[in-house]
Amino acid sequence: MDEPDTVLNDRSFEGGRHPFTRLPVEVRIVVGRARLKVEELLSLEKSSVLPLDKNLADPVELYVGDRLIARGVLEEIEGSTDGQLAVRILDVSDESASL
């Protein structure tokens, strides 16, 4: 296999920033998990209540892909008229630096 003519690294780009740093990344916020039997899943209907494995005061988890990157608490955005939610970061995972 032919070797590339140029090796790309952070210093190869204008301003030292890799172009991938500008790509959008979806962050998934996990409030909790529920474990159901198939029978229970099939019986779900409007107004069904699923107990989660977390309490209201427990932090939520932030994931990029399958990697936990941070924990935080849910808050309503100040001044929001429609109750829009946000996450206040409490702790950033050491592994998030390697993303």
TrEMBL record:
One of its GO terms (biological process) is bacterial-type flagellum-dependent swarming motility. SUPFAM superfamilies: Surface presentation of antigens (SPOA). It holds the Pfam family FliMN_C. Residues 22-92 form the Flagellar motor switch protein FliN-like C-terminal domain. Coiled coil: none annotated. One of its GO terms (cellular component) is bacterial-type flagellum basal body. GO terms for molecular function: cytoskeletal motor activity. PANTHER family: FLAGELLAR MOTOR SWITCH PROTEIN FLIM, YOP PROTEINS TRANSLOCATION PROTEIN Q. Belongs to the FliN/MopA/SpaO family. This is Flagellar motor switch protein FliN-like C-terminal domain-containing protein.
